[in-house]
Amino acid sequence: MGPRLADRLALYLRDAELYRGPLSPDHPVFSFGHHRPIHPYTISQAFHRLVPELGLDLSPGVSPPHLHNLRHSFAVATLLRWYRSGIDPGQRLLQLSTFMGHVNPTSTAVYLTITADLLQEAAGRFERFTAPVWPKEIPDE
Hints:
Layout: H1 3-20, E1 31-33, E2 36-37, H2 40-50, H3 69-84, H4 89-99, H5 105-108, H6 116-130
Antiparallel strand pairs: 1-2
Helix pairs in contact: 3-6
């Protein structure tokens, strides 16, 4: 989670406490009422109502986006941001897994689709890692 999202979440929680009083640790963060968490079906309904409004151009044989696709996009985009900002994704996978509600990174691996951008960033990191011991050009024998 980035600093802007953390700030907004803190503001949301502060406002929730002002409105409802002190929140207990098991209190749902997002709800439609006091101690009423948002039901997954409600989220799914809203998503499927919004998708047609996006006016996406889908190729024949391509299915429209599913709510679960957002988890894939989030996981890959997070890794890409880490690579581009110089953070070692291997050191942060447990955080990503926890944020996504998984017990360990193995469960999160399902969401880590290899994209061209992600592959390029990983390859660049590998090249920088091997640069001290791997010559740019191998001399002919």
